[in-house]
Amino acid sequence: MNLTMASEAAAAYKSGAQRARxxxxxxGAKNLYCPNCPSPxxxxxxxxxxxxxxxxxxxxxxxxxxxxxxxxxxxxxxxxYKTMMEAIQDDRTPNFLxxxxxxxxxxxxxxxxxxxxxxPTSAIxxxxxxxxxxQRAGWVGCNIALSQIPxxxxxxxxxxxxxxxxxxxxxxxxxxKPLGELPVSERGWTLDVLTAVRSLGKPEFTNQDLYALVPNxxxxxxxxxxxxDKLRQQLQNLRDLGLVEHMxxxxxxxxx
Length: 256
Prior knowledge:
Layout: H1 16-31, E1 43-44, E2 54-55, E3 62-68, E4 75-80, H2 81-89, E5 95-102, E6 107-114, E7 124-126, E8 141-145, E9 155-159, E10 162-163, H3 166-176, H4 184-199, E11 204-206, H5 207-211, H6 214-220, H7 227-240, E12 244-248, E13 251-254
Parallel strand pairs: 3-5
Antiparallel strand pairs: 1-2, 2-3, 4-8, 5-6, 6-9, 7-8, 9-10, 11-13, 12-13
Helix pairs in contact: 4-7
């Protein structure tokens, strides 16, 4: 993987967004690989392909690359709120690749992979509608809250200029891939509980530790009146997926 992008195409554009796309997307076609299968390349799609930039020629997985010249922080600016929410609920979300590049040399500093099955609706933050005087008056965008995505689903392909070995990226991807086999109606809860488990910051935890977070889950899932029962159910799901280990009654160990 070459972390220095060819920037010549940017000279033809004035818009920052167009300049970035003209440089980052061809770079991806030459340097990205599929974490889901052994394919060493991804096919770049036509510019008017909605919401996706690449497709794996072997397994058919879709990918979207989002580049920015600032560091990847707690949130990522995304597109239309309704479209993103519907994509998650219909299980049509692409695999996202979030890139931080440095100017003026167009060097890739960080590249973060988030699999398509790792986005709970709780991670999609609704922005205020555009003002009546805006060109797209009333349009509602969204941000992606990375803190609401389980840490093991935030897979670093490049970290501060250091390339993660392909085998390690693929191992990390396949470790959490069973999450994608859960029904969409259940998956959001499982992701939210996994994020909460990791937020506890300790290798072993109890049901009571999670019960202390019930107010947070009430905000995330206001229609549910049996939060504690749901938490216990999701811990069993995580156990079956190999992401936590049951130690004794009401006691668990996180498996990082």
